[in-house]
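#struct-help
A.M.: can someone run this one for me? Single chain, 508 residues.
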Amino acid sequence: MAIACVNTRASCGVEAPQVTVEVHLSNGLPAFNLVGLPEASVKEARERVRSALINAGFEFPMRRITVNLAPADLPKQGGRYDLPIAVGILAASEQIPTNSLKNLEFVGELALSGHIRYCQGLLPAIIAAKRQDHTLILPLDNRHDAELVGYPNVLFGSHLQSLAAYLQGQNQLPTLAPQLEWISQETPESHTCLSDVIGQYQAKQALEIAAAGNHNLLMLGPPGTGKTMLASRMMALLPALNYEEALEVAAIHSVAGLDIKPQHFLQRPFRSPHHTSSSISLVGGGSIPKPGEISLAHRGVLFLDEVAEFPRKVLDCLREPMETGEVVISRAAAKLTFLSRFQLIAAMNPSPSGDIDSQHRSSPEQIQRYLSRLSGPFLDRFDLTIEVPKLPAGTLTQAAPQTETSQDIAKRVKRARELQLARAGVLNSELTGKQLKRFSGISDADLVFLEQSVVKLGLSVRSFHRIQRVARTIADLEQVPNTERRHIAQALGYRAMDRLLARLSQQY
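D.P.: on it. C-alpha cells below:
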C-alpha cells in the first residue's frame, strides 16, 4: 500500500481554503477514481494527468489509483488540481521522495505535454499561503499574481520534468525578484481634469465634498449638462489606495478573471455598468458565484448613468450592500461573502422628456411616475442630490474664468480624509451613530435646528444622520474643528430630489 498527501488550495470566492490531495495506490484492476465532490472540470483531470505524466517521461502506475480531495464537503472546480494530483501520483509510486512535499503547496493546470499552464484567480491562494508561511509552487505564467502579493516563498514551474527534478534536489525553480520596483504610492496621472467642465460650480463643489467624505451622490439634470463628464472626473480627486486596500481589490478582480495591470495596482476602480445589467451581474452570483459590479467597485466608484432606466428591482438589490459594505451570496453548496464598500455616483434626467420645464411634453403625473422608478429607500441612501442645470446663454462663447484643477482639489480632499481618519479611524460616511455624536462637533442648538428642518422637509431619521455627516465633511474641508450652522445649511442645500418631489406633489 502506497499513500501520498499533497497540499493545494481551493477557490471559494475571495477565500482559498486548504485542500489535501490524498493519493492511494493499491493492487487490483487498473483504475483511476477521483472522489471528494469534484465537478466536471476536476473529473477530467484523470485524462490530463495520465497524458501529462507519460509525455513528460514518467511511468504511469498500472494499479488501482484513488484520489481523494479533502475536505469532501467543499466543492472543487477548475483545472488547478491537475498539478497536485500528478505530484501525488509520482510520490505514491516512489518516483519522487515523499518527504520533499513537506510545507509545500501546489496549484496548476497541466497540458497533455506535461507543461504547467496558467490558472485563473490564484491571488487568494497566494495570500492564504503567505498567512500560513507555506512555500507555494505555481505556474510560471502566474508570476504576475505572485508579484502583486510580494511573498518571497513562491516558486514557479513550467514543466513536470523540471518540477520533479527540483523535488529530487537536482535543480532550482525560478523565484520572485527581491522587491517590487513598479509599485508606487503616487496617484496615477489622469488625462481628465475638473477644469475642463465649463460652469457647474455647485456640482463641482458637491463632487469635492463627496470625494472628501466618501458620500453617495445623485446628479439631476437635462441631457448634455455635464453629469457624465463630472462623474468621470471623480477619480482624479480620490487618493491612491494603500497596499492592503489594493490587495483586497486585486483579489476580487483576480477571482472575477480580470487582469490587474501593475501601473493601475494602487488606482481605485471605476465601474460603469450599462442600464440593461441584471441583478446578478450587478450584485454577483451565478451557479459558480462570481463577484458583481458592486464588488469590482470595492474601495472605488460605481457610476450608474441614466439610473432611472435601471429596473427598480435591480437598484433595490444595492440597498443592503450600501449599508453593510459586503454582499453575501447563499447557495446550496456554499455561502460566499464578497466585499463591496463602494461609493455610488448616479446621474439621471429629471423627467422622461429630459427637461423638467418641458410641461408640454411631460405632465407632472408622468414626471412623478418616472421618478418613482427609484424607490424611497434607495433614494434615502444618497447623501447628496444636486441639480446640474443648463448653462446660461453666452457661457460657451465667452472666455472661461480660471478654475481650480483636479490636482488642487485633490490636495484638499486628501487633507480632509487624513483629518477624518486621525479623528475617528474611518471616513465620515462610515461613522456610526455613537461616533457621530462624539465627533460631529455640532452644538445642541444646531442639532435642534437640523431636526426642525428634517421634520419640515419630511425627511427620514437616516437623512438626519446623513446630513450631519455631510456637514462634518464640509467643516473638514475648511479645516474647522466644529461643525457650524452654516455647514448644516449648506448640507441641507444638497437635497435637490426632495425639493423636486415636493414641487411635483404641489402641482399634481
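A.M.: thanks! The chain has a mean pLDDT of 90.
D.P.: also worth noting: The chain has 21 helices and 18 strands.
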